[in-house]
Design goal:
Layout lengths: L11 H12 L2 H24 L14 H17 L2 E5 L2 E5 L2 H11 L2 H19 L3 H26 L7 H30 L3 H32 L4 H40 L3 H12 L4 E6 L5 E5 L2 E8 L15 E3 L9 E9 L2 E10 L7 H40 L3 E6 L4 E4 L1 H7 L3 H4 L28 E9 L5 E13 L2 E11 L1 H38 L5 H30 L14 E4 H12 L4 E4 L6 E4 L1 H18 L6 E8 L2 E7 L34 H11 L3 E7 L3 E8 L4
Parallel strand pairs: 15-17
Antiparallel strand pairs: 1-2, 3-4, 3-8, 4-5, 6-7, 7-8, 9-10, 9-13, 11-12, 12-13, 14-16, 17-18, 18-20, 19-20
């Protein structure tokens, strides 16, 4: 049995032919041409150097007219008697060709031996329909190698003698030289294809090639010796070769089955994965059945996917092959032997049908003459059904994924909070809106117990976070929760639970934030309480003095009547201001440019306006500084007085009777600033901006010790911004506050 001659574990001729066809590989073409030239040159040397020489061994007793054709046929049969063995992804071809060459060299004269070797190889190439490039390469390689073998066997072993040590040495040296010439020629092509140095290929394969060469010598010499001295035993001599061939073929079948099982296992994983199933099916099935070409054409498509043995992982797209015309919709597997592309002898077309749908057809073609067995075709058809089911499953999965993404988008974009809790009380879904309500992001909430996420006041714990049971799976409750930052939120939880065998499986909860509504109700109540208090304050003295004047006015002195009327007028003016503030606040929105807020901006002396505002308050507690010179500013004088009166009045109201309120002017950052500093109780940091909101009071309206509607600062800031300025605040608890009116200077 010989070594892997021209294949050497690598399907060189196919790859070389593919390279020349597909890639216009000039280096490969040049090297194939060089090998052919080398073979022709060495063959010519044999003809010139060894003219008229006899065979190495004499005494076979068969006329040359019969011996040469017989050995040509023997050489051809030895070349086509091939056993393919798998080594991982590589395929190794074993044949008896080298053993037949030794018989040719020993029994024939040099020129006849060369003729038998070349003719047998050419005949085998014709029988096997090898591609032209492969046939030329093999012809050049073996002509060169056989020429070297003939020269060394003749020169070392001599001619016309018996089987001696000298002949044995000549055959052994010649066979080793034959092996190295063959390997070097092969390495030249593989170096280009694999992109590695030729010498590294020779180094890696040399040991195996030499070992197999020794087996070749043993087989060839033994067969020759039996033919010379006991030809009757030649049929028995074939028995070891037949046994070894059978053993190799059994091993090859086992290796093929292992490779097929491995490929089918990977295919089952690919089909289960539902990802890129068509491409992976094509690659793995072609590999499992050792096909030369695999093609898939989907129904209604004018594009085919194909993969070839030359590049087993490269899936290409192109027009459907002509031999599949009319077979894409076939209902059963079809075996083809005609109208196939050059180099292909047999193809099987299977329908891709299953899972309630028809998706097209797949074809797998090979170069071998043997048709696929019925079992192989049945297995291929089953795989086609599995592919159809996988495609249908992938479509369902895609639709499911699309629907899930839509649902996920609805959940995430919903303004309502949504959560899903399993039977153990663990959160499975927690959308963004709920994360904003509870102050806990979804990444921190998912997988945690609901009871550890929502903190409920003790007086509301009896309602429970999961108040559902099998009889009342739909329940709506309201709870107050405390966020991690301390803020309280009022929530409405609408539960929709699913139970199985009395056990909670899942509870879907839609959550609404009622905090704004509750705050609005609280503001409404506070506003009513505040307005009632503020209106009652001026009305009480008005009503009292009116009643006094009505019942005792004639008996009162003129001075007392004047004082009573002055007080009534003052309280009525105060009441009028309250009503005016309410009306103005109702007209002013969140933007200073909204309709209802009228200002007339021009250049005025800000210092004079400040003095007027201080004079209108008539309080000796106000200390004014920096108003001696003129401070031109862009403002509405009436509205500016209104703002300053509010700010200074607040300072007086919230400061002790023995503390002053300082009013000063300054320039900074291109603006003019009026600072009103008091020494009152101060304002908490979390209320520094809230005091500028409508009706906001730092004090509880039900227990407040100072009067006010909570509109003064709101109106002041809106007026300042309407004039191009602003009102800002700095405050420290128990120290006091500084309100600053900022106005722009003249252009």
């Amino acid at each position: 049995m010989t070594s892997p001659s021209h294949e050497a574990g690598r399907p060189l001729p196919q790859r070389a032919a593919g390279a020349v066809r597909g890639y216009a590989a000039d280096p490969i073409t040049r090297r194939v041409a060089a090998v052919v030239t080398l073979g022709a040159a060495l063959g010519a040397v044999v003809v010139v150097v060894l003219p008229g020489r006899a065979s190495v061994l004499a005494g076979v007793g068969v006329p040359a007219a019969w011996l040469v054709p017989g050995l040509v046929v023997l050489t051809c049969l030895a070349e086509i008697t091939v056993v393919r063995l798998r080594h991982g992804e590589a395929v190794e071809e074993l044949s008896l060709y080298e053993a037949a060459l030794i018989i040719d060299v020993l029994l024939l004269p040099p020129r006849d031996a060369l003729l038998a070797a070349v003719a047998g190889l050419v005949l085998a190439s014709v029988v096997q329909r090898r591609p032209a490039v492969k046939a030329l390469f093999n012809l050049g390689t073996y002509t060169a190698a056989v020429s070297v073998l003939i020269l060394l066997a003749q020169l070392v072993g001599g001619a016309g003698g018996a089987l001696t040590v000298r002949v044995l040495a000549g055959v052994l040296i010649g066979t080793l030289a034959f092996t190295m010439v063959n390997l070097c020629c092969l390495a030249q092509i593989l170096a280009v294809i694999n992109g590695v140095p030729a010498w590294s290929i020779v180094r890696d394969e040399a040991r195996l090639s030499v070992s197999m060469a020794l087996g070749t010598v043993a087989t060839g010499l033994t067969t020759t010796a039996v033919a010379l001295h006991a030809p009757v035993l030649l049929p028995f001599m074939a028995m070891p070769a037949i046994a070894v061939t059978y053993a190799y073929r059994a091993a090859a079948r086992e290796a093929d089955e292992r490779a097929r099982s491995s490929a089918l296992l990977r295919l089952s994983e690919a089909l289960a994965g539902r990802e890129d199933v068509i491409r992976r099916f094509l690659v793995l099935v072609r590999e499992a059945f050792d096909a030369e070409v695999g093609v898939i054409v989907l129904s209604g498509s004018d594009v085919a996917l194909s993969v070839e043995a030359d590049e087993p992982s490269a899936v290409r797209t192109g027009p459907p092959p002509a031999y599949l015309a009319g077979l894409v919709e076939a209902d059963a597997p079809v075996q083809l032997t005609e109208n196939l592309p050059a180099g292909l002898r047999h193809a099987v077309v299977i329908p891709v049908e299953g899972g309630g749908g028809r998706f097209g057809a797949a074809a797998f073609a090979s170069r071998g003459r043997r048709r696929m067995s019925t079992g192989d075709v049945t297995l291929l058809a089953s795989l086609g059904n599995a592919l159809a089911v996988a495609i249908r499953g992938a479509e369902h999965l895609e639709r499911l994924t699309e629907e899930r993404s839509k649902l996920q988008a609805v959940v995430e974009q919903s303004a309502e909070g949504i959560m899903v809790v399993d039977g153990a009380g663990l959160v499975q879904v927690w959308n963004q809106a709920l994360g904003e309500m509870a102050g806990i992001p979804a990444a921190e909430a998912t997988g945690r117990p609901l009871s550890a996420l929502l903190e409920v006041p003790a007086d509301e714990e009896r309602a429970g976070l999961l108040p559902v049971d099998e009889e009342t799976p739909r329940v709506a409750t309201e709870l107050t929760i405390r966020r991690p930052d301390g803020e309280e939120r009022r929530l409405r939880l609408a539960h929709s639970a699913i139970f199985a065998a009395g056990e909670l499986v899942r509870d879907v909860v839609v959550i609404s934030d009622l905090t704004r509504e509750y705050r609005t109700e609280r503001l409404k109540s506070d506003f009513i309480a505040m307005v009632s208090h503020e209106l009652r304050t001026p009305l009480t003295p008005i009503l009292g003095y009116v009643d006094l004047l009505r019942t005792r006015g004639e008996r009162m002195t003129p001075q007392k009547r004047a004082d009573a009327l002055a007080l009534i007028g003052d309280r009525a003016a105060h009441l009028s201001r309250l009503v005016e503030d309410l009306l103005l606040a109702s007209r002013v929105g969140d933007r200073p440019d909204e309709a209802g807020l009228q200002v007339a901006v021009a250049t005025h002396d800000l210092a004079a306006i400040v003095r007027q505002a201080v004079g209108d308050l008539s309080s000796g507690r106000v200390v004014l500084t920096g108003c001696d010179e003129e401070w031109p500013a862009r403002c509405d004088p009436g509205r500016t007085v209104q703002v300053l009166t509010n700010l200074i009045g607040n300072g007086l109201k919230y400061s002790a009777e023995d503390r002053t309120v300082e009013v000063s002017l300054r320039r900074a950052a291109g603006m003019l600033h009026v600072d009103v500093s008091d020494h009152g109780r101060g304002i908490p940091a979390d209320s520094l901006e809230k005091v500028f909101e409508k009706f906001h009071r730092v004090e509880d309206p039900m227990t407040m010790s100072t009067s006010g509607t909570g509109l003064g600062l709101f109106i002041a800031r809106r007026l300042a911004r309407a004039m191009g300025g602003d009102v800002t605040l700095q405050s420290r608890i128990s120290v006091g506050s500084v309100f600053t009116l900022s106005l722009p200077p003249p252009d």
